[in-house]
From TrEMBL:
InterPro entries attached to this UniProt entry: SAM-dependent_MTases_sf, TrmK
Species annotation: Paenibacillus mendelii
Pfam families from the UniProt entry: TrmK
Lineage of source species: Bacteria, Bacillati, Bacillota, Bacilli, Bacillales
Protein name: tRNA (Adenine(22)-N(1))-methyltransferase TrmK
Gene3D superfamilies per UniProt: 1.10.287.1890, Vaccinia Virus protein VP39
Length: 251
């Protein structure tokens, strides 16, 4: 049985797609996608040899060596252009994820890819910004909790009219606040435009935990008397105030 996190990703992959799972580790996701009959074939990409071996073993044990190509390499470099319809990347930071996608874009490996299902562990805003910059539209977002950790899953589709559609997705009126536009946009990228439209307990919990973390940092910083610390503390306070403001305006 797949973990709730990987299941949330699997559920968003369009049936029938040829999928590449990048940073696949044990290849649990592609094995599940094929065994459940959702997709016909997959590529499991891995940078490191340990996880790559684990992926080969898992694939062989499942009897899927003919259907899952396990390849060692950096990001999308393991793919041929046009080889897959969908790409999943999960369990790494948003900044690394955006770097992988950007190099893939630069080298033409994203051409023909219709769908991305991404689960950044941190830095979701970096991924959302990359998507907008490169012509992808968020189709939906999910948030879930597993083993005491909160995860977000971003599902994006490629679209010719992405620029226009993204204006609707990142509609600033989602946050009815007397806050400057660029700050509002910043919070839409950080908290998630769909998650903010239908705020659930978990989204609130995630940002309340963030507030607690910031309060701990603020307290630490406040122990020092230096002018830099005063400045830093003021910036943290401002950040905390904005989070509280956003949370307070949610329906
Ligand atoms: N995707 C699986 C999941 O979500 O359960 C595994 C996540 S694991 C924490 C992250 C994996 O990404 C590691 O196995 C690591 O070797 C791999 N990785 C890191 N950088 C990578 C890159 N540039 N290209 C391919 N794989 C990478």
């Amino acid at each position: 049985k797949l973990s709730k996190r990987l299941q949330t990703i699997a559920d968003r992959v369009t049936a029938g797609s040829r999928v590449a799972d990048i940073g696949s580790d044990h290849a649990l996701l592609p094995v599940y996608l094929i065994q459940s009959g959702r997709i016909p074939s997959a590529v499991a990409g891995e940078l490191n040899s340990g996880p790559c071996e684990a992926a080969r073993k898992q694939t062989a044990d499942a009897g899927l060596t003919g259907k899952i190509a396990v390849r060692q390499g950096d990001g999308l470099a393991v793919l041929q252009p046009g080889e897959v319809d969908a790409i999943t990347i999960a369990g790494m930071g948003g900044s690394l994820m955006a770097d992988i996608l950007e190099s893939g874009q630069q080298s033409g490996k994203l051409a023909g890819v219709q769908e991305l299902v991404l689960q950044p562990n941190v830095g979701e805003d970096i991924v959302r910004r990359w998507l907008v910059r490169r012509g992808w539209v968020l189709a939906d977002e999910a948030i879930l909790e597993e083993d005491g950790r909160i995860y977000e899953v971003l599902h994006a589709v490629y679209a010719e009219d992405a620029e226009i559609r993204n204006i609707g997705v990142y509609d600033l009126t989602v946050l009815p606040l007397p806050m400057e536009s660029h700050k509002k946009a910043g919070w839409l990228y950080r908290m998630g435009p769909y998650l903010l439209r239908k705020p659930c307990g978990l989204l609130i919990k995630k940002w309340e935990l963030e507030l607690q973390k910031l309060e701990r940092i603020r307290h630490q910083v406040s122990l020092s008397e230096s002018p830099e610390s005063r400045e830093k503390e003021a910036a943290i306070r401002e950040e905390m105030n904005q989070i509280k403001e956003v949370l307070a305006c949610l329906p």
